[in-house]
Write a structure and sequence with these properties.
It holds the Pfam family CRAL_TRIO. One of its GO terms (molecular function) is phosphatidylinositol bisphosphate binding. One of its GO terms (cellular component) is membrane. The protein is of the alpha/beta class. The chain has a domain of 179 residues: Phosphatidylinositol Transfer Protein Sec14p (3-Layer(aba) Sandwich), CATH 3.40.525.10. The protein is built from 18 helices and 7 strands. The chain has a 5-stranded mixed β-sheet with strand order 2-3-4-5-6. A two-stranded antiparallel ribbon has the order 1-7. The longest helix is centred in the middle third of the chain and has 18 residues. The protein is globular.
């Protein structure tokens, strides 16, 4: 019995050509990944078709890559639950951060049938919120995309990160350890392809921060990064007005309106996130050696050191 959403004709064509999807073989592929999961005593995992299918799609149907991503996904959620394993969308502090609109997914995909755009902004007071507070809904947003968004699942994600309101205090929160956690989760474990990253309205301080962040990126991701100041010409050549808010010269409603609309999704996904309580890893049950998360990705330097260099 089929328990996953059917793609429209255009998306199915992209899935077939870019991801190597064979619709008639999906049930067989799901059975194979489930069989592996059943032999992993350390993993407490979601078993629904839609969730598992995305790990196959995000790995271009490489079973070994899908296994690695699934294992790392749950290992990171157990290692860093305060940021990565949201279970209560009604938490008061969480809702306060959501209202700030620091991160949201824009409603129209690129060119009508392309990647989903995720917008991030440093529009929060650092004396009230930590960077973990801010990125908790940001990371949870990706789980909503994973569960509900066929455009993100098949075509990937385009990030726009706006540094217009970023201050030195924001950058000081972005420690190497935090950058490691963020990149590990979004690039290494999340089965959503990162197609492009636009860093806009960047300052000299942002350029210094990138010296910490970029070493954690894979070479492929570094090649997809675009850094620009307040001249957005390069980005606007790639992204049409139909998929951008009016704040950036687009035809979509204002950011204020888009944030209000996007935040309704947390209510509709309440049960989905409640189920996170039961998911994760128990390293004492892992076959072989426990996974050394800290040793997987190197950490070095700090923003404060770079500022004075």
């Amino acid at each position: 019995m089929k328990n996953f959403s059917t793609l429209n004709e255009e998306l199915q064509k992209i899935a077939n050509e870019e991801l190597g999807e064979v619709p008639s073989r999906i049930h067989e592929d799901l059975a194979a990944i489930r069989l592996w999961l059943q032999h992993q005593p350390h993993l407490k995992y979601r078993d629904d078709d839609q969730f598992l299918l995305q790990f196959l799609r995000g790995s271009k149907y490489s079973m070994e890559k899908a296994k690695t991503k699934l294992d790392l996904y749950y290992s990171l959620k157990s290692k860093y639950p305060e940021m990565l394993n949201l279970s209560n969308v009604d938490d008061e502090r969480f809702r306060q951060v959501c209202k700030l609109g620091t991160f949201l997914a824009l409603p129209n995909p690129v060119n009508g049938v392309g990647p989903r755009i995720v917008l991030g902004r440093y529009c929060y007071p650092t004396n009230k919120y930590s960077v973990e507070d801010i990125f908790r809904p940001a990371c949870a947003l990706h789980e909503i995309l994973l569960a509900q968004d066929p455009y993100a699942c098949v075509c990937g994600i385009v990030y726009i990160v706006d540094f217009k309101e970023a201050t030195a205090s924001h950058f000081l929160q972005m420690t190497p350890n935090f950058c490691k956690k963020l990149v590990s989760f979004l690039e290494k474990s999340m089965p959503l392809r990162i197609k492009s990253v636009y860093y806009i309205n960047t300052s000299g301080a942002a350029q210094q921060f990138f010296k910490i962040l970029f070493p954690f990126f894979s070479q492929k991701l570094r090649e997809r990064v675009h850094v620009m100041g307040d001249d957005l010409t390069e980005m606007l050549k790639d992204l049409s007005p139909q998929c951008l808010p009016k704040d950036y010269g687009g035809n979509l409603p204002s950011l204020e309106e888009l944030v209000l609309d996007f935040n309704k999704k947390w209510d509709s996904c309440r049960e989905f996130f409640q189920e996170n309580v039961n998911c994760g890893t128990d390293e004492t049950l892992r076959p072989g050696k426990p996974l050394d998360i800290d040793g997987l990705f190197g950490v070095g330097g700090s923003f404060r050191q770079l500022i004075v260099d």
